[in-house]
Amino acid sequence: MPSSQIDSLHSAALERYRARNPGSLAALERARKVLPGGNTRSSLWNGPFPLCIEGGEGCRIRDVDGHVYVDMLGEFTAGLFGHSSPLLAKALADAHARGINLSSHTPYEVELAERLCARFPSLELVRFTNSGTEANLMALTAARLVTGRPRIVVFEGGYHGGVLTFGHGVSPVNVPFDFACLPYNDHDAAEAEFAANGAQIAAVLIEPMQGAGGCRPADPAFLQSLRDLSREAGAFLIFDEVQTARMSVGGAQARLGITPDMTTVGKFFGGGLAFGAFGGTREIMERFDPARPDALPHAGTFNNNSLTMAAGVCALDNYLGAEALEALFARGEALQQDITRVVKETGLPFVVTGMGSIMNIHPRTGLGAEADRKILQLLHLTLQERGYYIAARGLMALSLAVGDDEISGFLDALAGGLDGLVPDTTFGTPIAKAPVR
Known about the structure:
Number of strands: 18
Strand order of the largest sheet: 4-14-13-12-9-5-8
Helix content: 25-40%
Radius of gyration: 22 Å
Oligomer: single chain
CATH architecture of the largest domain: 3-Layer(aba) Sandwich
Number of domains: 2
Distance between the termini: 39 Å
CATH superfamily of the largest domain: Type I PLP-dependent aspartate aminotransferase-like (Major domain)
CATH topology of the largest domain: Aspartate Aminotransferase, domain 2
Shape: globular
Structural class: alpha/beta
Largest sheet: 7 strands, mixed
CATH class of the largest domain: Alpha Beta
């Protein structure tokens, strides 16, 4: 398949997109007057302009031009409950009626903390934040102060928040910590780093599956080696489970059987509101006890916001049980297998990687980075035309509201191929996937 064919199909798809979505373009032009580029969340940007979504219900969303899509993205993993859950709406209304921003401790925060500590093998004590970014910042700060060491081991492709981004090395907007950014899933590189700098390493921060890095699961043997290396060096192993906490009732760590020293979570544990949490062993976390003369400070007006706490309790009690999460994991694994099958049968130039209900479709044209970029955007726009919404980068995250009919429809839409594309049976070679127990 020549790249000129991709160019032609890509240009035609962009023209159809512009013609279909004048309302979204107008919304962006209005936003540009008060927001840089009309944007306040960089990950949502995609050319020629992003859709403006005005509402949603269940697993469907609606844009300002009136198009309805099956939402296969689930708010980049945060929208686990679907849209407009009546149970969460009632929990928020009840909490609001009792008063918000109550200027002191409330019953809600201990209820949520008890539930989180009961779920995760690594959480003996926990503190709340307003985002996963904050949770990771506080976990790293705790590790640096408790150990008295400066160095943090992270991994290429990792994303731990807006100021902890390692997609292409160390981002210029990152906090100025002493980072060692190593290749992901590379035991030899980790071993060499600890051999050279073990006495200076405060913590290893890793996602059991890199989310923004393309849904790349860690090899369990690699995670176990990090557990052993950090323990031997007196450093803390921190699992960023902001995304992977959905993999079981105890997160990816419970599924893998590897217990870190600290864990960070966020997103859906706040019932869809802004939320994060960090926690770990009692020895580490007791340093935040305000009654101690040497207490580490950790303030934040909205850390124990009663609306978020109430929504989190409701979410845990009604949606995030073991049975529901196991079923969601199995559904996601099955969907990845089905996508691989469809790609093989159609000769589409894509592969899929992921863990459970979070996955990423990757282009594999063999024609270079620009052709890959265009073919992925062509897939993104084609699926939209057929009524299915995924991220421009190929990310998908199933919500609990996505059912068998929606998944069947998505697979049919994918099997429809890319109109005008000549199939090539050499495309779609699967990427080897590390086993997840």
